[in-house]
Structure formats: C-alpha cells, structure tokens
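Run log // design_07
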C-alpha cells in the first residue's frame, strides 16, 4: 500500500493497542500521527511500563495494570496486539466476537509503506538471513532498511521509508498470524520445524501462520522456498508468485544450490523475474564454499536463501560475493566468544528449539561440552540423543528443562552430567571439565523466558562469564 492510503484507513478510527513494549509503543505513535484515536493497554503495572510515561507526554492514552472489562467495546475499530499475546486472552476473544479486526504491527507497517517489503520467516536462521540480505543489498547500493522481529519495529521504519528504499523484514509466526492484506514483494520461507507449539497449539496452525507470508502475493511478486523441506514444497502448490528455490542437497530448476565445491545461481527462464535478470548468464557461479566467512554447515542454507532473495531484489553477483567473503555472522548465533587454554567457547543463545541446537552441535568435530536448558514447552528432546552420542562429552543443564535434558544425556551414554542454577554457573562448571581441544557450546534448545528476559540477555551473561574466566587467568 502507501503512507497516504494507510493514513486514510486509520484517520479518525478508534484503535486499541494491546501490549506496550517496543513494538506497541512504536505502532501507537505511528497511528496517532495518522490521526487515529489511540489507547494502549498493558496488563503489567505502571511501574513496569517504561514506555507509558513518554506516550502520555505525547498525548496517547495508556492504561496499565490489567485489562478493564470495557477496554474492548463496539466503538473500537481495530485491535493491534503484541505478537506474543495469545489469542485466548479475554480482550482478544471479545474483539473477535464483536467482529473487530485483530491485527499485528507488521500489518500496519504494510498499510503505511511506500517502500517494497522483503519478508523472511522460518523456524531457524531468520536473523542471520535477514542481516545477510540487508548487507547484500547495501553493498549493491539498493538502500535497504532492516527491521521487524530483528529488533526495530517494522511500522516505525515503514512510515519513514522512501519508495526507492527496500524494507528487509524478519517476521515471526506470531506476527504473521495477525496479518490480513500483508503482501511482500519478495517472501522467503527458510524452514519449518516444530516450534512455538505452546502458542499455536497445533503444527497446522504454526504452518498456516508461516504460509500467510505468501497469501496475498501475485505473479508480480517472488517467493523463495527451501526445496529440501517437504512442507515448503507442499506450500508451493498454492503460491501465485514466481518461485525461486534453494537447496543444500540437489540442483534446482531455478534458484541457488551447491554444485561440486561452489554455490551457483540459476535464473528462471520465463516470467517477469526472468526478464529482470535477462542480462545475466543462465547459471552464475557465486563463490567457492571454502571462501565463505560464515561458519557452520547449517548456515549454508541461510546463505543460499540469501543469494536467491538478493538476486531477485536486484543485488549484483559481485556485491553478493564480497559480502559472503566477509560476513561472519550475527551475535548469539554460533558466535565465537574466546579461546581459553585451548578451549573454544561459542554463544548460540538464539538456539531456542531442538532443531537449532542440533545444527549447532553438528557444526563441530571437536568434543563438545554442551550447556542447555530453559523454558519447558513440552518437548521431549529425543531427537537429540543420536547427536549427543556422537558429539558431546559432557552436558550441563539449568532451568525448567534441566531434568529432561539430563535424562536424554544419560540415554546417550554421557557420563558427565551436571545440573546448575544458571548460565553463569554453567560456564564455571564447564571450565572444570574442559580440556585443550574441546568446545564449550551454549546452545540451549529452549526459550529463555523461565529465567531470562530474552535470549539476548542469556547470551550476554554467557559471554560476560567467559570473559571473566579469561581475565582471572
């Protein structure tokens, strides 16, 4: 859509923003600027709503400390909910019963954007791939703005972006579930594994939420999917956009894949995208695998996805090469922290599900001291047992899932198993076990919310603890 169309949509409308935080505050400000009558409601007490004071000063009504019975009523035109708020809460149920649209902040971003949007989602690899695509477009002089689930609210950036820019957006299933007309010009689905089932309740709802990324695309748009994923291949049948694939296992008809020891990109032969790339060779050699700066075999999937998206967006093959030779990763994603007495420490705090942890574990040949644990979402972690047998010499656990993970370690025959109180204690315990040549890996396989505000906080504490070890020598 466009800023002017979005302003017309919300001018004079009564909007309830449920959930404050960063995205709630951002969308409240954006909509007030559009002329909407905005009320923000958060169940947290006023003392914990840091953004409330600033919003009050800007003339936005904020109600903290619970959800008043009449907060949702027939006079409300839109409810914009924080993505993490479940649909089962009373205000949302009431809004749905009244036929009031319940949307998320990214829907508002689309409605207010003059710039095209590239949307990236998946169970794992979103932040790395989003960042990588942003770098490729920047290197090509295409003026990207990276936002969304990666940290900067998309609505805030969309309202400011110019038509010649491109919004590169990391999108979660929570955000996509609350969309109606959201239409990215390029949409990328990296993978789909069992994740967030405590929120979505069923795998079907989780997959459906992810697939909303493509729901409104037309033949003028591009969809980039993982050919190695059975779910992605099944979804492709209903997608109207031009398709590009990526695969780490086989050659694809159009898209990016590995041939021998190098990455190649094969452009489509028909359609608008084929015309856009018509001056390029049918098959472009991108880079040899040994030239990649980004570590980890699992990151090859992210790289291939990035190549397909970036080429579809107009990035030059030369710019893509330069970025791939220098881009070494994102904080909290298999991030090298330090080497102490021949032991290497890695922070993979973003690994919030078993699949992400298994990818990290598979990235090392050296013996691993694995630090894991966190929020219990009802996962049994059985799929990790074969990998634990092959790669792990010791397991240190904490949090709600500690006993489950210790049981899997025992099943894998790992003798060295220890439960500790937190990540800081885990690093201290790992130091006692580690020998030269070992890897100490924080890859929790769980969300952080039982003990920490975010995976970032957890990762920072891990890194601080490791650096204290280094300074204490």
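design_07 sequence
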């Amino acid at each position: 859509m466009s800023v002017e169309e979005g302003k017309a949509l919300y001018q004079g409308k009564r909007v309830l923003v449920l959930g404050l935080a960063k995205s709630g505050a951002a969308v409240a400000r954006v909509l007030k600027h559009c002329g909407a009558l905005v009320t923000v409601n958060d169940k947290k007490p006023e003392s914990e709503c840091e953004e409330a004071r600033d919003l009050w000063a800007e003339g936005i009504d904020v109600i903290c400390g619970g959800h008043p019975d009449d907060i949702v009523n027939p006079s409300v035109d839109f409810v914009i909910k924080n993505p993490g708020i479940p649909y089962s809460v009373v205000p949302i149920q009431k809004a749905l019963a009244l036929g009031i649209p319940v949307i998320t902040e990214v829907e508002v971003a689309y409605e207010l954007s003059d710039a095209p949007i590239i949307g990236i989602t998946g169970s794992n690899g979103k932040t790395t791939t989003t960042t990588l695509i942003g770098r490729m477009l920047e290197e090509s002089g295409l003026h990207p703005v990276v936002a969304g689930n990666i940290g900067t609210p998309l609505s805030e950036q969309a309202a400011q972006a110019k038509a010649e820019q491109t919004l590169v957006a990391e999108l979660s299933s929570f955000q996509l579930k609350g969309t109606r007309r959201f239409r990215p010009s390029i949409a990328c689905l990296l993978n789909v594994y069992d994740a967030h089932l405590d929120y979505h309740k069923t795998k079907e709802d989780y997959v459906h939420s992810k697939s909303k990324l493509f729901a409104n695309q037309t033949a003028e748009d591009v969809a980039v999917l993982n050919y190695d994923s059975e779910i992605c291949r099944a979804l492709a049948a209903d997608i109207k956009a031009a398709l590009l694939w990526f695969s780490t296992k086989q050659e694809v008809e159009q898209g990016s894949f590995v041939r021998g020891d190098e990455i190649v990109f094969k452009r489509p032969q028909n359609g608008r995208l084929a015309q856009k790339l018509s001056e390029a060779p049918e098959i472009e050699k991108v880079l040899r695998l040994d030239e990649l700066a980004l570590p980890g075999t699992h990151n090859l999937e992210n790289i291939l996805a990035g190549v397909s998206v970036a080429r579809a967006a107009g990035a030059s093959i030369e710019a893509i090469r330069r970025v791939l030779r220098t881009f070494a990763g994102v904080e909290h994603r298999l991030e090298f922290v330090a080497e102490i007495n021949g032991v290497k420490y890695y922070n993979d705090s973003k690994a919030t599900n078993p699949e992400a942890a298994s990818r990290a574990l598979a990235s090392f040949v050296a013996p691993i001291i694995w630090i894991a644990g966190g929020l219990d979402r009802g996962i049994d972690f059985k799929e990790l047992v074969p990998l634990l047998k092959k790669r792990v010499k010791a397991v240190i656990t904490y949090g709600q899932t500690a006993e489950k993970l210790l049981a899997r370690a025992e099943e894998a025959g790992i003798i060295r198993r220890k439960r500790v109180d937190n990540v800081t204690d885990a690093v201290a315990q790992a130091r006692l076990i580690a020998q030269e040549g070992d890897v100490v890996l924080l890859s929790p396989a769980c969300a952080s919310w039982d003990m920490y505000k975010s995976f970032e906080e957890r990762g920072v504490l891990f890194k601080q603890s490791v650096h204290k070890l280094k300074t204490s020598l």
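The chain has 19 helices and 20 strands.
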